[in-house]
What does this fold into?
Amino acid sequence: MTKKGFIGLLALSMAVTSCSSDDENGGTPGRQRDPIDNLSTPPKMYGAVINAGPILPKAVLVETVVRTAKLEGVDNLFVVHLPGENSIFYDAERNSGLKDFIQPLGGANDFYVNSDLYTNDPAMDYTELVPVGPPIAAVNHMVTQVRPDSIIANARVEFFEQLIDRKFRVATYLLAEFHADTDPTTGVSFNAPAIPNILATVNGISSFTRNIPSDTIRIFNEGEMLKYQYVVVAEPRNHPLGLALDSVSIFGKEFDPGDVLGTRETPLRFALARNHIHLSRVKGLALWTVLYEIEEEIDPADPDGPPLVEYIIRNTFLSKI
It folds into this structure.
């Protein structure tokens, strides 16, 4: 029997003894189920189509990719905007950690799906943007408490493969939907940069100047306002770089099929500030949970120094709240 198997058997034995003691003392057997236990984590891969930068310059590109993919039957893609330091959406207290996860976006037609870089092309097969096969793990989340200044969210992770000596982190972020317009009260502008013959700002609203087709598929209509769905407005202030799973699991960096973290015994809880400066302009809120794998390698420029660290998105999930 492996060490993990022995510990699991010991834990099961202790749980049975505990339930028996409850029965003998006339108490109610077992415990009340935690709402997080009702969350499902089906073995499905999801992809975040990421737009990052100081002024979110590729909003039209990434929104087009996701809309086109959905019209072609791809239901596991969604847009995430990561604001840079010069963006109206950026807040140093709430967004600083994410810069360590995403690399520069490259050329004008480049975008990320999770950690993979793609170049948009009219002949692109959008069904290939997210792997079809089962993922190594899946994530989900739920709001467990709403406070005046914050939202408390709990995440859940389930593994589907045996993994040994692998380092993972999980994080849940607060996202908001904004319209590309100008706040008439404060004059704060959320407008997008103009794109000739595609997007223009008139009377404080950024909208499409013509119908945007993709072959025979209508993606945007003339006069339609651009919407940012969704922009990261808060990272977990208690774990800005994510929560290391080996600090939660008694088995450290070892995971087996069926292992679940985020239960009552292994909570993955995140505090997300909701007093954002532009909250009055928010059209909707969402949670975004990411499972990162941490890979380290020797820096060839400094072999004796700290290793190079890369955060790879292994799975992700977004839902409105």
